[in-house]
Amino acid sequence: MELKGCTAIVTGGSGGLGHRICIALAKNGVNVVVNYAESESKAKGVADELKQLGVRAIAVRADVADPAAVARMVEQTKAEFGRVDILVNDAAFNKEVAFADLDGLTLELWNHIMTTNLTGTFNCIKAVAPLMKAQGKGRIINISSGAGLVPRGSSIAYAVSKAGMIHLTKCMAVALAPAVTVNSIAPGWMDGTRMSANWSPEYAAGAAGRTLLKRAVDKDDVAEQLITFCKSESVTGQTILMDSGRV
User: Fold this and answer.
1) Are the beta carbons of 143 and 91 closer than 8 angstroms?
2) Which stretches within 177-215 are classed as H helix?
3) What tens digit of pLDDT does each residue of 102-133 get?
4) How far apart are CA 76 and CA 102, in angstroms?
5) Are residues 162 and 144 in contact, defined by beta-carbon separation less than 8 angstroms?
6) What amino acid positions are annotated as catalytic residues?
7) CB 200: neighbour CB atoms within 10 A?
8) Whether pLDDT at 204 is above 60
9) pTM
10) CA nearest 91: which of 182, 24, 19?
11) What local confidence, expressed as pLDDT, does residue 20 receive?
């Protein structure tokens, strides 16, 4: 798909990885809706940065767990840009709870993680699907995690939510073919993200050393893989693991 002139919605666009994804899209001529739930100033700052790259950009508040808010975001995007070509599901929530600490993984926390990470992704895909299908093209990229492929991560709920995203990617690829492709990226440890900020300092200090490449995953590498998925006419339903050789 030719990207110049396209419009993308990036959920969690003001976060560490979301920011780099927005930059990569803008460098390819894509207009960007920077979604946020709480960090208005950060999201507006990212939007201003994107405008300096020669594209149009706005910050839009919407909690992805709220279907009505997501629908309003999509309608606002359509009103502002006339279309939605790319959806990046990067919004997520985590909190570190040791796998063995089942009492610490309360039902409230389980539900919040699952609703934000998995149901929120479903809400956003469902909201853009009719528009993309009517346009005859679209690209959806879900940001999962290496924790969705092996029993690791900040909590059981987080790992299960990311595993669900990977299977949702496959299911939505079937549901939205042939007009829309749906793919996923499963990053490993990345410095400077909201996810990594929730880990204990002890875990963070040794995370890169536990990989074969002995370095954290480069956020720009992940963003470039996303661009590849957007451009591709031949790939759907796939998840690529980018974890510096951890798994």
Assistant:
1) no
2) 194-197, 201-207
3) 999 999 999 999 999 999 999 999 999 999 99
4) 41
5) yes
6) 158
7) 10
8) no
9) 0.94
10) 19
11) 97
